[in-house]
């Protein structure tokens, strides 16, 4: 894919704003429509927060590499890579949206949202890294 750029950030919630700023700049450069940009940024936020909160356990101290690659004339592929504990967020079952709020298990709604709003979402663990990739076109 052409136009690949990356940034490495500390895997901390406090770095979320910088991650979104990076992706917003890449999407603006790619002439992404605002409505689609908001969905992509929301998906990035969910994935980044999951890494920041869970990938490195209580000790923290890890990083997340975000790569954004243009795909064709109107699309992007965004990959988040971390060296945290192996975890495939896509294996989580979809939440039961018909259940009353007080009866629902906590969590899972963010990944559900990512799956519903992106063209594709993929996960792989390559021995050293967790790699979650989202793709979206416009």
What does this structure look like?
By secondary structure, this protein is α+β, with helices and mostly antiparallel strands. It has a single domain, classed as Histidine kinase-like ATPase, C-terminal domain (Heat Shock Protein 90), CATH 3.30.565. A five-stranded antiparallel beta sheet has the order 1-2-3-5-4, covered by helices on one side. It starts with a strand and ends with a strand. The model has no long low-confidence stretch (mean pLDDT 90).
List the helices and strands and how they pair.
Layout: E1 5-10, H1 16-29, H2 34-55, E2 63-70, E3 75-82, H3 109-117, E4 120-125, E5 130-137
Helix pairs in contact: 1-2, 2-3
Describe what is shown at a glance.
The longest helix is centred in the N-terminal third of the chain and has 22 residues, at 34-55.
List keywords for this structure.
alpha+beta; Heat Shock Protein 90; 138 residues; 5 strands; 5-stranded antiparallel beta sheet; single chain; 3 helices
| Largest β-sheet summary | 5 strands, antiparallel
Q: Which word captures the global form?
A: globular
Considering the protein shown, what is the CATH homologous superfamily? Answer: Histidine kinase-like ATPase, C-terminal domain
Low-confidence stretches: none
Alpha-beta classification: alpha+beta
CATH class: Alpha Beta
**Rg over alpha carbons:** 15 Å
Compute the number of strand runs.
Answer: 5
State the distance separating the first and last CA atoms: 16 Å
Overall pLDDT confidence? 90
CATH topology annotation? Heat Shock Protein 90
- Topology order in helix (H) and strand (E) letters: EHHEEHEE
Helix content: 25-40%
CATH architect. name = 2-Layer Sandwich
Measured by DSSP, the beta-strand proportion falls in: 25-35%
Q: How many individual helices?
A: 3
Count of individual domains: 1
Major sheet: arrangement of strands: 1-2-3-5-4
